[in-house]
Design goal:
The protein is built from five helices and six strands. It has helices at about 25-35, 70, 90-95, 95-110, 115-120; strands at about 15-20, 55, 75, 85-90, 120-125, 140. The longest helix is centred in the N-terminal third of the chain and has 13 residues, at about 25-35. It is globular, with a radius of gyration of 17 Å. The mean pLDDT is about 95.
Length: about 140
């Protein structure tokens, strides 16, 4: 039996919309990463970007399990003395709800050139509206 390796010209990309309402952030992020990398397709090739374009809507309605809203901390460092900042997940949800999804997905992606290119295909929106309706995306809801 021969092993199939996808070639750049043969890739058929699709657009997928994930509805994040009432979905646990980590479980949603796993499905998003698999779609971005193409691991949900039989034509997955590790060194080629075979993934789909992913749009996430209702990011502000995604949930954390347990007490992570109050206890989970996001840290930023500017590089300057005294530039270390910590923010709870609840405060991040108020200010930038898209960041909750993006940070979870980025933590699961490979951190090389290919991973950055695959991550660039992710678009996250806090509300229901998105400008990608012309691509006829396939909608996926989390159970």
């Amino acid at each position: 039996m021969k092993t199939y390796l996808a070639k750049v010209g043969e890739i058929q990309r699709e657009h997928i919309v994930f509805d994040a309402s009432e979905a646990p952030v980590g479980r949603l992020a796993v499905k998003i990463v698999n779609a971005l990398r193409g691991k949900d397709k039989p034509t997955y090739t590790p060194h080629i970007d075979t993934g789909a374009f992913v749009v996430v809507i209702n990011a502000s309605k995604a949930v954390f399990t347990g007490h992570k809203d109050e206890r989970k901390v996001y840290a930023d460092y500017t590089g300057f003395s005294g530039g270390y900042r910590e923010t709870t997940a609840a405060k991040v949800r108020e200010q930038h709800p898209e960041r909750l999804i993006k940070d979870a997905v980025w933590g699961m992606m490979p951190h090389g050139r290919l991973g950055r290119a695959q991550f660039a295909k992710l678009k996250v929106y806090a509300g229901e509206e998105h400008p990608h309706a012309a691509q006829n995306p396939r909608k996926i809801t989390m159970e």
